Amino acid sequence: METVGGVPIAFRDDALLVVDKPADLVVHPAPGHRGRTLVDALAGIAGGGEVERPGIVHRLDRDTSGLMIVARTEEAHRDLSAQIKAREVARTYTALVEGHLESRTGTIDAPVGRDHRAPEKMTVGGRAPRDARTHFEVLESLPADSLVEARLETGRTHQIRAHFAAIGHPVAGDSRYGHAGRHGLERQFLHSSRLRFRHPGTGEELSFESTLPADLASALGRARDVHAP
After folding, report:
1. Do residues 108 and 151 touch, judged by C-beta distance below 8 A?
2. Where would a tag sit more exposed on the chain, N or C end, judged by fewer CB atoms within 10 A?
3. What 3-state class would DSSP assign to 83?
4. How far apart are CA 84 and CA 207, in angstroms?
C-alpha cells in the first residue's frame, strides 16, 4: 500500500484520498496539542474546507485507527461534507467491549454532550447534548468481552466510546471511559474498519475495508484466551 508522510493510502485520485490512519496520530491541529498531525502528513495533497484543516470532512480520535476520507479539492470537500451531514456515508467500526451485551444486535439512541465535571469527556446528556445513534452487532462473544461491529448513524465526538460506556460495556483499553491496559492494550480497541460512500465526481459507490492492526489483533488473541470467570 502506498504511504504518504508515513500514512497508508488505501485510495487516491484527483478528488479524494482514503487513508488508513495509524493510532497515536491527531487528525488536525487543536489547542493544547503539539506535534505532527494527519494534516501535516498530507500537506500539499489534501485540500478544500478550512485553511487550518485542509481536506478534513470527518475525524477519528487520536488513538482510534482505520479508514478516513480526505478531500483534495474544494468541490470534493463540499460534496463529501454534504454526504456526511445527510448521513449517506456508511462508517463501520470494529470494537472490543467489556462484558457481554444483552442482545446480539441493537441501537444505542442517546444524545451526548460535554461532561459538566470533565469537559474533555463526552457523556449521555451532559452540556448542550446532540442526538446520537450507534447501531451494533455482536460478532463474537469472548470469555469476558464482546467483539462488536458498530455503525454510526451520527458522528458525535467520542460517540462509540461514550455510548458503550453508558450501557456498562466500555471499549476495552479505554483510559478515559473504561479501564486502561486491558489485555495489554495501550489504547482503546476501536478501529474504523469499513467505509462506503459516493464518489463526489463520478457518483460511483466506493467501498473500503481495513483489517485490524497488529496491536489490536494481538489483544483480541489474548482476550480469546482469558479463562471464563
Report:
1. no
2. C
3. helix
4. 15
Residues forming the active site: 61
Alpha-carbon distance values, 140 to 66, 100, 137, 203, 220 (Å): 20, 10, 9, 35, 11
| Domain 2-225, architecture per CATH | 2-Layer Sandwich (3.30)
Q: Which three cell numbers stand for residue 99?
A: 462484558
pLDDT tens across 104-143, in order? 999 999 999 998 887 788 888 888 889 999 999 999 999 9
What average pLDDT does the chain have? 94
Collect contacts of 140-144 with beta carbons under 8 A, ≥24 apart.
Answer: 141/100, 142/96, 142/223, 142/224, 142/226, 143/223, 143/224, 143/226, 143/227, 143/228, 143/229, 144/98, 144/99, 144/223, 144/226, 144/228, 144/229
Amino acid at 115: D
The radius of gyration of the chain from alpha carbons, rounded to an integer in Å, stands at 17
Cα-flanking dihedrals φ and ψ of residue 227, to 5°?
A: -75, 130
Distances in Å between the alpha carbon of 79 and those of 12, 57, 60, 151?
17, 10, 20, 21
Q: Which residue type is seen at 148?
A: V
In this prediction the pTM is: 0.93
| Amino acid in the structure at residue 26 | V
Domain ranges of the chain: 2-225
Edge-to-edge strand list for the sheet holding 112-114 = 122-124, 112-114, 127-130
**For residue range 60-108, what is the model confidence (pLDDT) as tens digits?**
999 999 999 999 999 999 999 999 999 999 999 999 999 999 999 999 9
